[in-house]
Amino acid sequence: MKEFPVPVQTAEDPSVKKQSGNIFSNVFDELVRFAQSRSLFMLHYCTGCGAIELPPAMTSRFDMERLGIQPMVTPRQADILLITGYVSVKTLKRVILTYEQMNAPKYVIGICSCTVNGGMYWQSYATAKKLNDYMPVDLYIAGCMPRPEAVISGLRQLMEKIKIGEANSWQDYFKRYDYYLGNQQRLFGETWQTPTDIIGESKHYSLHTPETEGEHTRLLELHQRPLEPLEMRLGLSEKTEDR
Amino acid sequence: MRAENYEPKQHPPSHEYELNFGPNHPGIEGNYALKVKLHGDTVVSARADAGYLHRGFEKLMEQRLWIQNIALVPRICVPDPSPMEVAYSMAVEQLCGLDVPERAQWLRVMQLEMSRITAHLFYFGGHAATTGMYNPMFWGVADRDLVLDLFEELTGGRVYCIYNMPGGVRRDIPEGFLDRLSRLLDYLESRLPEYDNLFFTNHVLINRAKGTGQMSQHQALEWAVTGPNLRATGLQCDVRRDDPYLVYDELEFDIPVEQGGDALARTLVRRSELQQSIRILRQIIQRLPSIKGPIRAPIPNPLAWNVPAGEAYVRLESSKGELGWYVVSNGGQKPYRVHVRGPSSMHAVQVLENLAKGSRLEDVAQIMFSLDACPPEVDR
């Protein structure tokens, strides 16, 4: 299979990064990244027509498993979220909920032209046109639909990017959460809520930047619904009064 | 512990609860969901939740030229796209009164039957995986790929082979294609006994699929079931025989029927249909070299093509069931109204809801796969 070099933009110069810090920690980081790139679990979620080329890619003819990539059924244990084709608005809500449930580091691959710019359905009233308005995307595989060879080539490029530490788009979701949330609110309405606390998680990963919070996250607090049932909260308050 | 001290713990009576089955679920076919109400692991009621794949095809087609829609229509049903483009082309031909050359009709039948083989092989794989057997899934997908290779050679596309256009087909077969097709059919036929041993006579399949998702012939007719699912209830009903289109009246084939009406019968009907498709393709290989002539009727400039006003209804037999296309033209360059009668919209909504009722949770996936419902065609 022919390998095409991917132009990758990085904020920091990797050569500067290597010189700084403990030499053992650098070796350890590289080892961890190598291990991450060689055991990837791909979430089993077929969002569009590109999913029909995944069974050939996974089974005996093209055999994705020889690269260490396997389907996984739960989002919390998966590393890769494959968006296989167009996402309608109803699907996009589920895709975002799924993406936020996944543990970092997580990688998003947009398969098919529809995830890039709307593709065949550029004038459809029901689909979201550009996927990277709503979540950061590591890699696009264009085509309608891409062949299994293209899918596997794309996954190998992702593995290379993980190995050299450049597949960091998941950090972008924490760093610029306000931008992504704004686009989501424009599509789903102002009252859009997800059960995941992204701002808290961004502090946990120490990825909290001034762009994480903004006018859109303030709307989040404004329209927040209580997550617990009413009876449970009443029961709690009665107990505290008793004490 | 003495017996009088033992107090068995009183569990509260088991209650009903709702479970979201899909869209992110390995047991669901494509992007589709069921809201299942359960008592223990018995399904009390199921409600289909469609719309995840809605793209508004019927509206999109009204905004594009007649010729542009050819690229759009195969996307309606992803596992079996060829009947869609054939049906749309036939509808436009009916509106224009175009006569399709005989060779193009034979090539279309060849494409339809090859597509049926791919869809059925994919179906075997899906049904096997829901009963916990992964070997047939690997085999089915690998053998389907060999047919897709021929599609690629013929049309340039693996899955969406946009081979048809109003008036005929886009190109003739390449040299030596029929030999390769014949060798592939020999190979597929030699694989069938192995599939029998592994899957169709396997006790795992028989014990799990027999009696699962059973419907009577009366119910099937009431729920507008068509295609192999109807034939599995014992009714010999096939559009290819009842209302022959293209050159199906010149071909010899049987219409396989099973009596059970359950998941096992639905699988066995498709297994026999695979044999019949191989038989049809063998006849095409024999007859096609003797049919000379053009492959396409002359059509006016497709970019400024005013199709005469009128309406057309075309129906044909896809691998899922009866497929209907209703196209209305008001004499303009774009369709005025298009409607697709997809077989899966009946199978995946009302039939699945009714059959899942009373079954066990682990059989819901099997019932859905055995109905061969195709979510993109439900939502369109």
Q: So how many helices of chain B?
A: 14
The helical percent of chain B reads: 40-55%
Question: Which structural class matches the secondary elements of chain B?
Answer: alpha+beta
Query: Structural class given helices, strands, pairing of chain A?
Result: mainly alpha
Shape, principal axes of CA atoms of chain B: globular
Oligomer: heterodimer
Name the chain pair whose interface involves the most residues: A-B, 34 and 34 residues
- Give the integer mean of the pLDDT values of chain B: 87
CATH homologous superfamily (4th level) name of chain B: Cytochrome-c3 Hydrogenase, chain B
Major β-sheet profile of chain A = 3 strands, parallel
| CATH class label of the largest domain in chain A | Alpha Beta
CATH architecture of the largest domain in chain A: 3-Layer(aba) Sandwich
Outline the biggest β-sheet of chain B. Answer: 3 strands, antiparallel
Characterize the structure shown.
With 243 residues, chain A is mainly alpha-helical. Chain A has two domains: 19-167, Rossmann fold, CATH 3.40.50; 168-243, no CATH class. In chain A, 44% of the residues lie in helices and 10% in strands. Chain A contains eleven helices and seven strands. Chain A has a three-stranded parallel sheet. Chain A has a two-stranded parallel ribbon with strand order 1-2. Chain A has a two-stranded antiparallel ribbon with strand order 4-6. Chain A is globular and about 50 Å long. Chain A starts with 13 loop residues before the first helix and ends with a helix. Chain B is built from 14 helices and eight strands. Chain B has helices at residues 57-62, 69-72, 82-96, 102-130, 135-155, 177-200, 203-209, 217-222, 228-231, 239-242, 263-287, 344-356, 361-370, 375-379; strands spanning 16-21, 33-39, 42-49, 164-165, 168-169, 310-317, 322-329, 337-341. In chain B, the strands form three sheets. Chain B has a three-stranded antiparallel sheet. In chain B, β4 (164-165) and β5 form a beta hairpin. In chain B, α6 packs antiparallel against α11 (263-287). The mean pLDDT of chain B is 87. The chains are: A mainly alpha (243), B alpha+beta (380).
